[in-house]
Amino acid sequence: MSSNPSRWLRIGIPVLLVLIWLVGGAIGGPTFGRVDEVATNEQSSFLPASAEATQVQERLADFTGGDTVPAVVVITGDGELSAEQQTQIGQAVMTLGDISGVGELSPPIVSDDGAAAQVFVPIESTGDVGETVEEMRASLAADLPAGLDAWVTGPAGFTADLVAGFLGIDGLLLGVALGAVFVILVLVYRSPLLPVLVLLASTFALCVALLTVFWLAKADIVVLNGQVQGILFILVIGAATDYALLYVARFREAIGSGLHRWDATVRAWKGAFEPIVASGGTVIAGLLCLLLSDLASNRALGPIASIGIAFSVLSALTFLPALLALVGRGAFWPLIPKTGATDLPDDLTRPVAGFWPRQARFVARHARPVWIICTVVLLTASVGLLQLKADGVPARDLVLGASDAREGQDVLAEHFPAGSGSPAYVIVPERALADAVGVLEADAGIDAVSVVSADSPTGQVSVVVERGDPVFTVQGPPGTAAPSPTVSNGDVLVVGTLADQADSLAAEETVRSLRAELAAAVGDGAALVGGATAVGVDTNDTSIRDRMVIIPTILVVILLILMLLLRAVLAPVLLVLSVIVSFGAALGVSALAFTHVFGFPGADPAVPLYGFVFLVALGVDYNIFLMSRVREESLAHGTRPGILRGLVATGGVITSAGLVLAATFAALGVIPILFLAQIAFIVAFGVLLDTFVVRSLLVPALSYDIGAAIWWPSKFSRGDSPAPPDHPVEVMTRAEYRATLEA
């Protein structure tokens, strides 16, 4: 940029940038109402790519003739069902077949106690499973007479409840997040216009990011589900606002130094460019590490969230500067900075006014005790990690609040084998069918065994092993021949009804034991065990593996970026260590809150991973904001004075940014999904801890105590640079200062 462009360019460039963003927002805005066209909450969008359960899921259609998700309708009365009630149930169930997306229903099966009936309903997975299930529930409510109650449960029922939980993402989540950010910005700036400009930058960044993601999802380049969509909204609003706050702080300083709006824009842009790009690049690098995951939902989040961060950076460096260049100092009305009002104190050795100058003096006087106490407190809070139960939660607990599928599963377990509707599927070579059936029959966790048969009216035929051979039986008149199993590529599909609820620990142990026993009986890799329980087992195992791979990778990537930014080794290492300790404390406190305050049943294994990605990647933002300014001030004033001046200059913006980010992530709590509620608490609490303890006390105090050596091994640390010599700042108390004045 030229410092003295013509008047037309000084107006034309900002106007052109604003128009470009307005066009992008106008095109992207309507996308909010079309996200459902490309978003999916089907099970396949969360499955581990190479897991055994996924391989089974991909082949089910070869045996069943269609790609379906099973639903289970369970109906009960006041007691034992009468003949009339059974007839009424049959009539009501028949109407379900007229609903779009519903396949061939099984006949109603009455429980042994005669008090309940169940119907198996295949639902086409290519359609909207949630909508189909809701139509089924409405149909049953309308057609069943008084005295009969019905629930739709099974995998399709839980999917429908999960979809319903995500319905508030487009409106409620975004409204709460933007409202919270607006209130915080008004309190921080006490200006009616500036918060609007900042929110415009954030909102338009989200519009253009969502437009980009929409078309990528439509082209099947990325997979968008409700979980990823909600995080994208929050991440873009929070990050874009954070970057905007950093630019506004620089612009305010420039305006306060007496510069006109164009010159103030140039100075602010130059000062904000490096930390904003470095911060955004760090977050993007951390998010892209999720591509190392084997879980589809994690891999989807990496590029999608990175796109959101990229547009957040672009908005903060183009759209917002253009708006402020046009509005000028009027953006801060009625508290327009006066000339010299934003200058940093020249002498921090004497008593000063203002919270952050006093904070800097406090750090200078008590640097070592401050960082030691902060470290001890954070490490103590990390002890709560011992109570973190992040080994998975049952599907019934994924949705907070009321759940028709959860209630139906409980009713089903009272009258039928608890695993009805969510069996274990075993794909095994036809030659090894007898061996596989023998393994399933011998397992106490399996209640009944059958084989899929396209020739059977029910789609399955019962099977037992007699004298080493499989024997098939079917209900019907004496002498009725049993249909043959369906064979695909030399394999057959065996169905094992679980004795325990499909999402229980007992059912998971059954799946694990079946895999081990089948490997021994028919050969390693010859039999594949899938089904809803196996999906949960493989997802949890994959999430735990992802944590072990992705977390160290993110740390290395962030460390390298900080080294390049700060041109040092020691400072980046200490900053990464501070982030790790802060994350441990946040997760420790969260574990205690989950167990003893909220009473959560546990956490998904991906919760610590997501918490780490957001807290570390976004927490490094504040490290970069602080230490890039510290380095800038240190080059002019020496390291220790530079640390204090950097703290004063960035303290307000980091605090404001932390409050904004915590508020936006806390907004995720309005979506009644356990995973999002836990992420909301971890990140919101962790960001506040990072803002008010780590970045305001621990890092400045530790850096001040170490002094110029913090820049090791650069020449800056050896005193070979043009910077002034590094000396401790001798801070006078108020009494000492008054004595000096009297003398």
Overview of this structure, please?
This protein folds into four domains: 1-37 and 191-343, Multidrug efflux transporter AcrB transmembrane fold (Up-down Bundle); 52-165, Multidrug efflux transporter AcrB pore domain (Alpha-Beta Plaits), CATH 3.30.70; 411-536, Alpha-Beta Plaits (2-Layer Sandwich); 567-743, Multidrug efflux transporter AcrB transmembrane fold. 59% of the residues lie in helices and 8% in strands. The chain contains 21 helices and ten strands. It has helices at 7-28, 52-64, 83-94, 129-143, 154-165, 169-189, 194-218, 226-256, 261-288, 296-327, 355-365, 367-382, 404-415, 433-442, 505-522, 532-566, 570-596, 606-637, 639-666, 674-706, 734-742, and strands spanning 68-76, 109-110, 116-124, 149-153, 424-429, 446-452, 460-466, 469-473, 491-498, 528-530. The strands form two sheets. It has a six-stranded antiparallel beta sheet with strand order 8-7-6-9-5-10, with helices on both faces. A four-stranded antiparallel beta sheet has the order 2-3-1-4. It is elongated, with a radius of gyration of 31 Å. It starts with 6 loop residues before the first helix and ends with a helix. The mean pLDDT is 83.
Structural class, from helix and strand content?
Answer: alpha+beta
Number of discrete domains? 4
Major sheet strand order = 8-7-6-9-5-10
According to DSSP, the number of beta strands is 10
Largest sheet: 6 strands, antiparallel
Provide mean pLDDT, rounded. 83
Number of helices: 21
Outline, from the CA principal axes?
elongated
Q: How much of the residues is beta strand, in percent? A: 5-15%
Regarding quaternary structure, how should these chains be classified? single chain
Helix proportion: 55-70%
CATH class category label of the largest domain:
Mainly Alpha
Radius of gyration: 31 Å
Question: Under CATH, the topology of the largest domain is which?
Answer: Multidrug efflux transporter AcrB transmembrane fold
